[in-house]
Structure formats: structure tokens, C-alpha cells
Design brief:
single chain, NAD(P)-bd_dom_sf, Epimerase_deHydtase, alpha/beta, UDP-glucose 4-epimerase activity, seven-stranded parallel beta sheet, UDP-galactose 4-epimerase, domain 1, UDP-glucose 4-epimerase, 2 domains, globular, 13 strands
């Protein structure tokens, strides 16, 4: 199978390339040649720009295209139209952020999608990220003549994750000592190992599937407690966990995601369903999951191999954490 990947040298793109090569398939990359240019010297890398320079895609054909880098509907429309007739399946990587809200538990693929307030916006780095992705899905479905596969992942984790949102926890627990964690330990978490996502995408292409899939995991939601235990075991750490009331954290201006990665306050009804996404359709189609222990161990091993010491993009520093723990003792 010959597969074109729009992008291909960051995180999910890397996982897709490696899974295709391992399966004996042929990945071909299309990008600007700016990110990790040294990777995959034996893989064909076509150079161009999604926004107006698709010349390198002319007079070529593939079995499928996987679009890992589509954020702006106008630009996604260009590639969908260009690749019609050049491949049988267009795979678009979307997100669960396309849903209109997370107030409901067990959100399935038919849940209403978010609407863009400003039809001229192309600012995918802010609040318009989800609505823009929803419009990108629409442009693919309207402009590509062939099978369309849309994957809506939740949080994607594992080695080479540029966000550091999951990586923070294996790293922090590996340092040992008292670790500040938002209470309660039973809080649901959902995420998917990037390698599991890549394998499922390739699986669905080969099955000649089409349609939309929510893709997150594990089969039953993990918890903050189970994640931290897996981190402690992977790191052979002596860390102990201090479960801090959410009200204390919010009163002290501790911010979800930026200060405490993965934390979605349970007292916020707006996000009650964020970690309760329905993945039954993907499970029936064969979505599989690596053990949590493997994802944690591999992520920690990768993080330790980074040139460094690398500064994580998220998570509070140790001094701030210590200050809060001391204050919480008197709370």
C-alpha cells in the first residue's frame, strides 16, 4: 500500500511512517521540509506548501492520503480537491474538540458540532480550533471524490509528544518526593497512545472503511490514581501523592492544563463529558490499546533521551509546588 502523508515528521506523522514501514507499506511525505529534515532519508519527501503550492502532488497516485496537518478549511479544501482521483481514501485527523460542548456524558460521533462565530476566522490556535476542525471535516467530505475517513482523537500521548502534557507526569513522579495532585484519585482520564492511533488508522484504510470515529482510550477510562501508580512503577520512584482539594487549587490560581497538565476540574459542569467520550464504534472496528505501563515507560525513556535538560512546556516548577504543599497543610 502506498500512502501519502501530509506532514509526517512530527509526533503522529512519525508514528504513521514507522507503522507503515514496519507493515511493509510505502509512505510518501509532503511538507515544507522544515521540521526534522534529517528523519527518514530513505522515504520520499515531496516539498511544497499546503497553502497554494501543491505542484509536487500532480501526476502521482496513492492508495490513500492521511492529512495530519489540516487546521484551516480553505487550505484543506485545496488538498481535498487536488487529491480527488489520485487516491481512493482521504483520512482526516480531526479532534473531539469539534463537539459543541462537553456538558454531556458518553458523547458519540453523532453529537452536534461546534459552530464558528466569525466565518472569516483562521485562528486555529485559540477558541476557534474546534469549529475550524469541524469545517475542515466538511470540506473534505464535500470536495474529495472517494472514501473519507475522519478520526476524532482526544488527548494523544506517548514518545515525541511536543505538548508535554502527558510527559509531565512520568517526569515529575520520577523525581520522587511529595507530588501535588488534584483530588480525587478516581477522576476519569482518557487518552490514546500515538502508536495505537497510527495502527488503527492504517487498519481502517486497509479495511476500506469510511465514516467518523472517536478515538481515545483506554477501553474503560483510566484514573488519575492509576496513571500516577504506573508512573511510579515505571520510574522506580519513591514518590508519594498529596491529593489536594480542587477548591484550594482554584483559590490559589493554579490553572488546569498549564499548571497541572490533564486536570479538568470536576466541579466545572462545562467539561463533565471531556473524559467520557464514547468509543464503542472504534472498539467494534478493532481499536486496541497498549498497556498503560508501556505508554508511561516508553514516554519516560524518550523524555530522558531528549537533549537537555529539556524544559517542559507545561506544569508548575518545583518551588511553586513546594509552596502550595506547605500552604495546603494549613488549609
Amino acid at each position: 500500500m502506498k500512502v501519502l502523508i501530509l506532514g509526517g515528521k512530527r509526533f503522529l506523522g512519525r508514528a504513521l511512517v514507522e507503522a507503515l514501514l514496519e507493515a511493509g507499506d510505502t509512505p510518501v511525505l509532503f511538507n515544507r521540509g522544515l521540521t526534522n529534515p534529517e528523519l527518514y532519508p530513505k522515504v520520499t519527501n515531496l516539498i511544497g506548501d499546503r497553502d497554494g503550492n501543491l505542484e509536487a502532488l500532480k501526476r502521482r497516485k496513492w492508495d490513500a492520503v492521511i492529512d495530519t496537518s489540516g487546521y484551516v478549511p480553505r487550505i484543506v479544501k485545496q488538498s481535498a480537491k487536488m487529491l480527488s482521483g489520485k487516491c481512493e481514501t482521504y483520512v482526516f485527523l480531526s479532534t473531539i474538540s469539534v463537539y459543541q460542548d462537553f456538558r454531556t456524558l458518553d458523547i458519540a460521533e453523532t453529537y452536534p458540532l461546534a459552530q464558528l462565530d466569525d466565518p472569516t476566522s483562521e485562528d486555529y490556535a485559540g477558541d476557534d480550533f474546534g469549529p475550524l476542525k469541524a469545517l475542515c471535516e466538511y470540506e473534505v467530505q464535500q470536495n474529495f471524490d472517494g472514501r473519507v475517513l475522519v478520526f476524532r482523537p482526544g488527548l494523544i500521548v506517548g514518545p515525541y509528544d511536543p505538548s508535554d502534557r502527558f510527559t509531565y507526569w512520568p517526569w515529575r513522579v520520577s523525581l520522587g518526593g511529595q507530588v501535588l495532585v488534584p483530588s480525587p484519585p478516581s477522576t476519569n482520564l482518557q487518552f490514546i497512545d500515538v502508536r495505537d492511533l497510527a495502527e488503527f488508522i492504517i487498519n481502517r484504510i486497509k479495511a476500506k472503511s469510511e465514516g467518523v470515529y472517536n478515538v481515545t482510550g483506554p477501553r474503560k477510562p483510566a484514573t488519575f490514581g492509576s496513571l500516577l501508580v504506573a508512573c511510579r512503577e515505571a520510574a522506580l520512584s519513591n514518590a508519594s501523592f498529596v491529593w489536594v482539594d480542587e477548591s484550594f487549587l482554584l483559590e490559589n490560581e493554579v490553572y488546569p492544563w498549564s499548571d497541572i497538565p490533564l486536570w479538568v476540574p470536576s466541579i466545572d459542569p462545562e467539561y463533565a463529558g471531556f473524559y467520557n467520550i464514547n468509543i464503542n464504534k472504534a472498539l467494534k472496528a478493532g481499536l486496541n490499546f497498549k498497556p498503560l505501563s508501556q505508554t508511561v515507560s516508553d514516554t519516560l525513556e524518550w523524555h530522558r533521551s531528549r537533549p537537555g535538560p529539556p524544559k517542559l512546556k507545561v506544569g508548575m516548577n518545583i518551588a511553586r509546588e513546594t509552596e502550595l504543599l506547605l500552604k495546603y497543610q494549613k488549609y
